């Protein structure tokens, strides 16, 4: 009887996950392996793929300075954006964890920008960063000269970082949930021992929420290495290819190069090779962060390090 019951449970479980298995097979597993094949072909969709081996990868690293420069630009953006959005989300989550009047309203207002579609948000920010926009009016109060942030190579990436910091609502919510899960008895014991606010934050708060910090840093790294829509909407004139990723290539991210290779130049094989290089970059950096987590991430069911 127990065997029949276990069989019935197994069949029921398989039936429940069957739609996911079918969907994953159709939309992930097959394209995953097909992209490996296409990355070793010359393929423009209109004609059958022509096998060329590793030529796409060789051209990418040896004969295409545009792709290599796009990787450098992407790294520069990641180094600016990941720490900035991390600190912004953590700072405001700590503020929203205090006992304030109208706390639910404040939390809603801080999270709201995160649900605005990326393209719509980018169009709104174009007005903010315009030469006559509100940001130049604010900086003008301190004597700064007005500037078109999106047309200056030295200010366009900081402008993108500002945009992303205002859309850090998802990170704020995750950190806020982690903060509320920290046992209050730890703070009470630290107060009795004479610990100050900074000591409590660095010795209790950060270690206790370190798993969420790890999750947010890894997901933020992956998302920023695939940055695309801001550069495509704000600094790329779709009718003028030389302006893509402007000004002067300052926002020519690797994902923008991938998109251009596939849907403008119709070099789908080459685009597949770029996607696998991007995948390798993401895998390397994510694995490095995960390996380093043994030294700074604390789990309650493990000994502290």
Automatic annotation (TrEMBL):
InterPro entries: ABC_transporter_permease (IPR051393), MetI-like (IPR000515), MetI-like_sf (IPR035906). Keywords: Cell membrane, Membrane, Transmembrane, Transmembrane helix, Transport. The keyword Ribosomal protein does not apply. Pfam families: BPD_transp_1. The chain crosses the membrane at residues 12-33, 71-96, 108-128, 156-176, 208-228, 268-290. It is found in: Cell membrane. The keyword Transmembrane applies. Gene3D superfamilies: MetI-like (1.10.3720.10). SUPFAM superfamilies: MetI-like. It is a multi-pass membrane protein. PROSITE patterns: ABC_TM1, PROKAR_LIPOPROTEIN. Residues 71-289 form the ABC transmembrane type-1 domain. Belongs to the binding-protein-dependent transport system permease family. This is Carbohydrate ABC transporter permease. It comes from Cohnella hongkongensis. The lineage of its organism: Bacteria, Bacillati, Bacillota, Bacilli, Bacillales.
